């Protein structure tokens, strides 16, 4: 249980005991809220429970606060309790308990900060969460906008796992519909051009140079045999070959960012004869939530709070725009039974995102089980100027190109240093700087410094065996306690990131933890040559090792390497 919630439980118990003793009247208290005060000098936690209860108790907040403080049960983590006007109860953590958290970090063995956010299912198993991300149309290489989707989705998957969910990562392959037909037509024309045939592109075709490269690659492997086929047959064959090659490239790009998917889900599979779409459509018809209007079949989402209905089957007989969303999410929630789903979409899908709760209701599903995370654009800069074209091809700037230039760690961390709802300005010059201006260098250097301290300690006679069980009671310097307090925040940061589906909270925390550690290193000599200080050095080495473990945990959640040296 989070420390904040343990404190709330103690306060609730104090209210009950005060009522039983006659210090407070009989009333039903509201839910107790505990938070960290903005002014850290007032304590580690604070509650306005006395003011929350004042109206229903018909008593002055200070009088209620006095009764609560008087009856507050003892706990080893509470070092002091103060009542402040107009009724705040401020709680300070006990120093002895704080230094004992070093042992708790060691016991956690790399899982420190993990929480159990969801209740377990009826069979006692962890609830399941699917995170579907990237899912870029397989019509070309991944560009930098997709990189933001990638690192956001992958980090959210890590965070949800740390919050107690059994997580599956999924890539939704948009291999059906108009965009794939356009891709196939473009590839066919570029293939014809590779053999000198006149086959000009039209305005709606994919104009990127990568299509020329792809066509020439296929021509080199298969020769001109597709030229002898009827055009539609050739387009169909080239479409399958091209799709496989594009997906292979996307897999490589994802791996460069240290991303591995548990499943690649084909949109086309939804429309197979025994696929999900026909089954869902039959159920929706049986439930009376579809209707024929203007020659098309509509899902009556206006019955579920929407301002309009959605086309399921067009008058042409083809599936409507939202048909795949309906079938795919039915497959996620009903067929595969995920308890929760997180979809990571670009901001230009915001209208689609607004429609999804109504589609969920029409399917008989709780909309709260689906979270759609929208992310804004990425703008690349070099030398203060926005970079819009690739140096290699003159077209889109790909994920591979940027990762090759600045590294996966810089791409991952920097893309997470802004809220997903804000436009991201990615500075290529900053990404490769080897100084504190570069956030990823700053946080990785923090971990490397900790590793360096431990190596130096071993060289000076402080091997791990000497300090592994050091007396932690020697700790007590303000900088040491501040570092421990900052590490204690990790569980709350994971909870906030999981509840809000916002991975940037972990990136901010990593920078804050690095700053606090650097301050500790500045103010506290870790390795002392004075034998009288040997016990203190051992305690500080144990603290340093614990901090290193927490730091590696945070970087791991972000998918960023924790280097031992830099």
Set down the secondary structure blueprint.
Layout (H helix, E strand, L loop, with lengths): L2 H18 L13 E2 L9 E3 L1 H9 L3 H11 L6 E7 L3 E6 L1 H5 L1 H8 L19 E5 L11 H19 L3 E8 L4 H17 L14 H14 L8 H26 L6 E4 L9 H11 L3 E4 L2 E4 L10 E4 L9 H13 L4 E7 L3 H13 L7 E6 L2 E5 L2 E3 L11 H8 L1 H8 L8 E4 H4 L7 H21 L4 H4 L10 H11 L1 H11 L3 H20 L10 H25 L8
Parallel strand pairs: 5-6, 5-11, 6-7, 11-12, 13-15
Antiparallel strand pairs: 1-2, 2-4, 3-4, 8-9, 9-10, 13-14
Helix pairs in contact: 1-3, 2-3, 5-21, 6-14, 7-8, 7-9, 10-11, 13-14, 16-20, 16-21, 18-20, 18-21, 19-20, 20-21
Task: List the keywords.
five-stranded parallel sheet, Gyrase A, domain 2, 15 strands, alpha/beta, four-stranded antiparallel sheet
Number of strands: 15
Strand percentage: 5-15%
Mean pLDDT: 95
What gross morphology would you assign? flat
Could you state the oligomeric state of the chains shown?
single chain
Which radius of gyration do the C-alpha atoms yield? Answer: 29 Å
Could you name the CATH class of one domain?
Mainly Alpha
Uncertain stretches: none
Tell me the strand order in the biggest sheet: 7-6-5-11-12
The end-to-end distance, rounded to whole angstroms, is 37 Å
Question: Counting H and I runs of at least 4 residues, what is the number of helices?
Answer: 21
The CATH superfamily name of one domain is Isoleucyl-tRNA Synthetase, Domain 1
Task: Specify the CATH architecture of one domain.
Answer: Orthogonal Bundle
Major β-sheet annotation: 5 strands, parallel
Could you tell me the CATH topology label of one domain. Isoleucyl-tRNA Synthetase, Domain 1
Query: In terms of structural class, how would the helical and strand content be classed?
Result: alpha/beta
Portion of residues within helices: 40-55%
């Amino acid at each position: 249980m989070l420390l904040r919630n343990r404190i709330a439980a103690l306060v609730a118990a104090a209210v009950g005991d005060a009522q039983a003793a006659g210090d407070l009247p009989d009333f039903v208290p509201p839910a107790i809220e505990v938070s960290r005060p903005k002014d850290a000098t007032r304590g580690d936690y604070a509650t306005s429970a006395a003011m929350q209860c004042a109206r229903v108790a018909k008593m002055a907040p200070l009088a209620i606060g006095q009764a609560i403080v008087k009856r507050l049960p003892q706990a080893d983590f509470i070092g002091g309790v103060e009542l402040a006007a107009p009724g705040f109860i401020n709680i300070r953590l006990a120093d002895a308990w704080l230094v004992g958290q070093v042992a708790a970090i060691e016991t956690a063995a790399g899982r420190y900060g993990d929480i159990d956010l969801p209740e377990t299912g009826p069979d006692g198993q962890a609830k399941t969460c699917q995170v579907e991300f990237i899912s870029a149309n397989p019509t070309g290489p991944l560009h930098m906008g997709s990189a933001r989707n990638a690192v956001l989705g992958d980090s959210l998957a890590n965070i949800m796992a740390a919050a107690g969910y059994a997580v599956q990562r999924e890539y939704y392959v948009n291999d059906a519909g108009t965009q794939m037909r356009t891709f196939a037509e473009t590839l066919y024309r570029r293939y014809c051009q590779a053999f000198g045939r006149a086959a000009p592109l039209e305005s709606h075709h994919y104009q990127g140079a990568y299509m020329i490269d792809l066509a020439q690659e296929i021509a080199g492997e298969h020769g001109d045999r597709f030229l002898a086929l009827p055009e539609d047959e050739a387009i169909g064959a080239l479409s399958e070959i091209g799709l496989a090659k594009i997906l292979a490239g996307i897999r490589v790009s994802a791996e460069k960012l240290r991303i591995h998917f548990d499943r690649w889900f084909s949109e086309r599979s939804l429309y197979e004869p025994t696929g999900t779409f026909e089954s869902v459509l039959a159920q929706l018809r049986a439930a009376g939530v579809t209707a024929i209007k203007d020659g098309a079949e509509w899902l009556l989402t206006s019955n579920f709070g929407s301002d309009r209905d959605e086309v399921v089957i067009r008058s042409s007989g083809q599936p409507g725009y939202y048909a795949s969303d309906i079938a795919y999410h039915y497959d996620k929630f009903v067929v595969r039974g995920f308890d929760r789903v997180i979809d990571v979409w670009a901001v230009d899908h915001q209208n689609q995102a607004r429609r999804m709760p109504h589609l969920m209701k029409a399917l008989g599903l709780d909309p709260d089980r689906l979270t759609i995370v929208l992310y804004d654009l990425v703008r690349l800069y070099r030398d203060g100027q926005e970079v819009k074209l690739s140096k290699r091809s003159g077209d889109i700037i790909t994920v591979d190109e940027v990762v090759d230039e600045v590294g996966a760690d810089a791409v991952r961390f920097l893309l997470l240093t802004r809220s997903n709802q804000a436009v991201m300005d990615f500075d290529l010059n900053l990404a490769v700087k080897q100084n504190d201006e570069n956030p990823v260098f700053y946080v990785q250097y923090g971990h490397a410094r900790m590793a360096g301290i431990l190596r130096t300690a071993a060289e000076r006679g402080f091997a791990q065996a000497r300090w592994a069980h050091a007396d932690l009671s020697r700790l007590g310097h303000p900088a040491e306690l501040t570092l421990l307090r900052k590490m204690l925040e990790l569980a709350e940061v994971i909870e906030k990131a999981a509840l809000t589906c916002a991975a940037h909270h972990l990136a901010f925390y990593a920078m804050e933890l690095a700053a606090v550690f650097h301050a500790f290193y500045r103010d506290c000599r870790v390795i002392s040559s004075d034998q009288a200080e040997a016990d203190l050095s051992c305690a500080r080495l144990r603290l340093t090792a614990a901090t290193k473990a927490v730091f590696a945990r945070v970087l791991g959640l972000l998918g960023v390497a924790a280097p031992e040296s830099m």
